[in-house]
Specification:
Layout lengths: L20 H16 L3 H7 L4 E10 L5 E10 L7 E8 L4 H17 L5 E8 L7 H15 L8 E4 L6 H14 L24 H16 L9 E4 L3 H12 L4 E6 L2 E4 L6 H7 L16 H5 L5 E4 L18 E4 L7 H9 L3 E3 L1 H4 L2 H15 L5 H26 L3 H20 L3
Parallel strand pairs: 3-4, 3-5, 6-7, 6-9, 9-10, 10-11
Antiparallel strand pairs: 1-2, 2-4, 7-8
Pfam family, one: ELFV_dehydrog
InterPro entries: Aminoacid_DH-like_N_sf, Glu/Leu/Phe/Val/Trp_DH, Glu/Leu/Phe/Val/Trp_DH_C, Glu/Leu/Phe/Val/Trp_DH_dimer, Glu/Leu/Phe/Val_DH_AS, Glu_DH, NAD(P)-bd_dom_sf, NAD_bind_Glu_DH
Keywords: Oxidoreductase
Amino acid sequence: MIFLASESFKTDGDIIPREKLLHYVQAVVRSSLTELGYAQDLIRYLEEPQRILKVKIPVKLDQTGTRVFTGYRVQYNDAPGPTKGGVLFHPDIEVDKLQAMSMWNGIKSSVLNLPFGGAKGGIICDPRELSFREMEGLARGYIREISPIIGPDKDIPAMDASSNSQVMAWMMDEFSRIHPEGLSTFFTGKPLIFGGLAKRDSAIADGITVVVKEAARLKKINLNHAQIIIQGFGSAGSLIAKSLSRSGIRIVGISDAYGGLYAPEGLDIDELLDSRDSFGTVTKLFEQTITNQELLEKPCDLLILAAIENQITDKNEENIKAKIVIEGTGRAVSEHAAESMTARDILLVPEILAGAGDVAVSYLEWVQHLQGNIWTNEEVDRRFHQIIGAAFQSVAETAEERNMTMRRAAYLNGIQRLAEKVRFRGWI
């Protein structure tokens, strides 16, 4: 099944009008490079993607004739190595949005210190209106058009929220037909049988679990006795809850669109997951619930925001009693609230770091391809934890040294690594 991609873009900060997403990411790049003391030539170079390719994809329809779809591939910067990013299938795709996403992917990869530049692709279509065969034709046609600029050392297409492993298998197969002399398994998000990783589906949740452990260690919180609240119990929040629960961590509060559940002694997460209705909600099955806002303001050790953006602002920031707040979704905490909470010694871990598990898993799948290895699940977990843990420690050190939020520290770390790779290559 193909799902429509989210309309929202995962960045951090205050509410940003959709048409200004690119301006926001460019402002992050400019302000970070200026703060780091880089010259204007390099700032101008990194504030825009290197390449934007527009393609036309003819697809024979099941019923009548042929329809021509428009697709794009945007590559931000390949100074770190090959660019990498997903492919969106959505009726409302704009080039500015793809540019912003490609830049964000590049920064996020650099925050993890991975050898990827950012990329993003998109095809203007409504996948709900296409048959299985038509989707295959569209995926294969897209690869035929962008094949000259992709490859294991050029650009790595990845699975996105609007696609699945079957789509990636079609793309991989089409590339192998065009380039039979080379390995085609560099695509990430592939089926397991072609070298995909089982960790793919839980990557973001598992990354947040690693961040929870690192943040607790930094704040000297014993997770065996900690109280954790998760705002959001949908596809993301439920996976986070499952991952934490299986690590033996006590969750005392969860919420969905209908309200929240809070039990200081701990909730039975497996029972709640089994009790969800066909819409994925659970709280309306209970008589005693609280509001989402009340749950946010409950005392706890860690608060994980996995619902929607703009949950903590200057209007409610003073009521937050958590010692650690982790953004499991983009823009969950406003910029002003982030500064205020940091001043109150609340540790805020930004989404660009906490939500980077999918990037780490893509990297590990790519490395398997390059080395021709098949790692055990335990080996993948070990390498995954190492990547996320090292990135967290690096961002925390920068935040401490510069007396700033972890959000700003993550931006500086990622963007400085990009700039240094451009500089050492002698491009600017």
